[in-house]
Amino acid sequence: MTAIDFNNNLVSLEDNMMKFALSLTTDYTRAQDLVQDTYIKAITYKEKFVDYTNLKAWVFTIMKNTFINNYRRSVKQNTIIDGSKDLYYLNLPQDSGFISPESNYSANEIEKAIDSLEDGFKIPFRMHLQGFKYKEVADKLDLKIGTVKSRIFFTRKKLMEILTDYR
Question: Per-domain residue ranges for the chain?
Fold first, then answer.
């Protein structure tokens, strides 16, 4: 297949490529970028295409692999690797420093709801909120880890019943 034939056949697939790209990205601009990346890769590696085989399947495979690689790259860029002991940096609160009046009101209501609980539920729950692991809570309160987990679970359920306005 000559380069002109290859390019003509490739251009004739544009509508199909756009539909497939839209099904992968669900965003028109990202789909256009994906089609463009696919064109570039197909033209760059056209010597790897075997004549008289299915060009459409070859191009769609390039597009699918490009989409997957871009997705993996974006996930990797958004991943924070914390090599510190006990994942110190990941456990730091991400605070903007600005407290809006609504969030302050909400926090006060939540605090009141937690304070209304009996100590057997309130204390393990507060410790868990402070960042203690289940095992640490169990050791400090001299409870079994299963008991701590169930108390925290039931405390969450009770708080959801009390704070129905926040759903």
Answer: 3-77, 86-166
pLDDT of residue 79: 65
Spatial separation of the C-alpha atoms in residues 76 and 165, rounded to whole Å: 37
Rounded Cα distance, 167 and 163, in Å = 8
Nearest CA to 133 out of 124, 122, 120 is that of 124
Average pLDDT by consecutive 10-residue portion of the chain (167 residues)?
89 94 92 95 92 91 94 76 59 55 66 88 90 91 93 90 73
CATH fold label, 3-77: Rna Polymerase Sigma Factor; Chain: A (1.10.1740)
What are the Cα distances from residue 5, in Å, to 13, 72, 83, 134, 163? 13, 34, 53, 66, 67
Distance of CA 57 to the CA centre of its chain: 30
- Count of CB atoms situated within 10 Å of the CB of 114: 18
pTM: 0.48
Quick check: 123 and 129 in contact, CB under 8 A? Answer: no
The domain 86-166 is classified under which CATH number: 3.40.50.10420, 1.10.10.10, 1.10.287.40, 3.40.50.10540?
A: 1.10.10.10
